[in-house]
């Protein structure tokens, strides 16, 4: 009787068969989201931890290629919810960021500081609207 492989099992099997780096694959999956790249760019640019609300505002500015006045309170709230429920947990689980739920502070981890080397491998343009 043959075993039915899940998509995750198939992915792991292909990774081993073709000599691919599973950690590199995971990093590329994380960087596949524009919003997560904006989070990382924002944290790197400020060099200090940001509150979830401030981070959501920064992401909104980058997504609209505009100024802070171009991002509505409602949009910041939507982005904040998306960051809290989807993007921050994925980045936290990969040890790219740290998140303190009590203070709502997001911090770039030591591993997170190195994320740009992977982005450069993809030759992804820096999404900073100022450039």
Strand order, sheet with most strands: 1-3-2
Principal-axes geometry comes out as globular
How would you sum up the major sheet? 3 strands, antiparallel
Element order: H for helix, E for strand: HHHEHHEEHH
Mean pLDDT equals 80
Strand residue percentage: 5-15%
Radius of gyration: 17 Å
Helix percent reads 55-70%
Structural class: mainly alpha
End-to-end Cα distance, whole Å, is 58 Å
State the low-pLDDT regions, or none: none
Task: Supply the number of helical segments.
Answer: 7
User: How many strands appear in the DSSP assignment?
Assistant: 3
Explain what you see.
- The protein has a 3-stranded antiparallel β-sheet.
- The protein is built from 7 helices and 3 strands.
- It is mainly alpha-helical.
Keywords:
131 residues; mainly alpha; three-stranded antiparallel β-sheet; 7 helices; 61% helix; globular
Topology readout:
Elements: H1 7-17, H2 22-31, H3 34-46, E1 50-51, H4 52-64, H5 73-93, E2 97-100, E3 105-108, H6 110-113, H7 115-122
Antiparallel strand pairs: 1-3, 2-3
Helix pairs in contact: 2-7, 3-4, 4-5
Kindly summarize this structure in a few lines.
The protein has 131 residues and is mainly alpha-helical. The protein has helices at residues 7-17, 22-31, 34-46, 52-64, 73-93, 110-113, 115-122, and strands at residues 50-51, 97-100, 105-108. It is globular and about 45 Å long.
């Amino acid at each position: 009787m043959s075993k039915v492989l899940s998509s995750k099992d198939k992915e792991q099997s292909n990774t081993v068969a073709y000599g691919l780096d599973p950690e590199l694959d995971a990093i590329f999956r994380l960087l596949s989201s524009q919003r997560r790249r904006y989070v990382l760019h924002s944290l790197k640019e400020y060099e200090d931890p940001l509150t979830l609300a401030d981070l959501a505002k920064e992401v909104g500015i980058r997504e609209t290629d505009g100024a802070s006045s171009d991002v509505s309170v409602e949009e910041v709230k939507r982005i904040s919810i998306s960051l809290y429920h989807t993007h921050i947990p994925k980045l936290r689980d990969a040890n790219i960021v740290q998140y303190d739920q009590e203070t709502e502070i997001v911090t770039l981890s030591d591993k997170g500081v190195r994320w740009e080397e992977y982005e450069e491998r993809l030759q992804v343009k820096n999404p900073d609207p100022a450039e």
